[in-house]
Every structure is written in structure tokens, then in C-alpha cells.
């Protein structure tokens, strides 16, 4: 893969660099069971990249339930904290990250995960020392599909948005990349499967 035309590389984390989505889904499944809410695995996967609070709000709205979303957030995060091994590295994207690092390309993480969880996952997987910038749900007010996560990553890298490329595993994330005027590679089932150019 030739990324020589880009000055900055931005990776999503969950489902893109680390196979941590099953851990998130497991925590949501237990939360739904506790609160007697319907659990649709595919729906939660589609919400990948969205912070926990946004997913909780969307879940209650989906089923027209009047409840405090923060109760769901607290439960989900508690179950997620209890999972010791949150996921393995995804070889295809991690190999690409290391390749770009060797070329001295500025590299960022742009994730909807909360900062303490993101740093935990990135540290235990050995990814953290390889990246220059980490932008999390705590660092922006508007989350994917809004562009803020990737715009902030580009700003911190000091690279113009038109010279950044994003690697994402969800439609939500791809929408955010295009909203930030960036090209995007879609990662599906651990494979970099599709290039989606931003139409300038």
C-alpha cells in the first residue's frame, strides 16, 4: 500500500488496530440484561466508534425508553473495566502502523473510547510508544460521525487535513473522516478492504 502522498496517518482504535469490539459488546450485553433491554449485537457493532454515553442515549431513543442514560454508562464501563484482556492487535493495520513509523510519518489515534480505557488498551498492546498523538472521547465535544476527532488529530500532528488519511472499521468513522475532508480506508474483519476517497 502506497501512502507516500499523505503526511499524516490517523487510526481509529477499537476494531481497527485492536480487536476490542467483542469486549465492548460483551459489556453492553451484560448491561442490557441487567436493565432488561433488548440486545442486538449488529446494532452495537454499527455504533462502534461512538462514545458510551452516545450509545446509551441512542439505545434508549431506539426503544423509546425514558430512563437516565448515565445509569447504562456506569454499568457498561464497570463491566468493561472487569474484562482484563480487552483484545488482540489486528496484524494488518499494526504492521502498516509500524511501517509508517519507520518512515517517520506523524501518526495519531482518533478514537471514541474514553481516555483512560484508550491509554490502557494502547499501552498493554504496545501501540502507545509508536504514536505521536491520541485523541479520545474526552478531547472533543462532538463525536463521530462529526469530524472533530480527526480534525483535532490533524491539528495536534501539525498536518493539513487534506494531507491526512484515516483507517476506520465503521461507517460512522468513515463518515467522520469524510466530514473532516480526509480520505479513508475501511477495515473489515481485520483486513484493509476498501478505499474511500473524499470527493473534493
Counted beta strands = 6
User: How does the major sheet shape up?
Assistant: 6 strands, mixed
Terminal Cα span: 22 Å
Give the SSE order as H and E letters.
EHHHHHEHEHEHEE
Oligomeric status of the shown chains? single chain
Helix share, percent: 40-55%
Helix segment count? 8
Supply the helix-strand structural class.
alpha/beta
- What would the principal axes of the Cα set say about the shape? globular
The stretches of 5 or more residues where confidence is low (pLDDT under 50) are none
Description:
The protein has 200 residues and is α/β, with parallel strands linked by helices. 43% of the residues lie in helices and 14% in strands. The protein has eight helices and six strands, in the order βαααααβαβαβαββ. The longest helix has 14 residues, at 21-34. The protein starts with 7 loop residues before the first strand and ends with a strand. The mean pLDDT is 95.
Which structural traits does this protein have?
single chain; 200 residues; alpha/beta; six-stranded mixed sheet; 6 strands; 43% helix; 14% strand
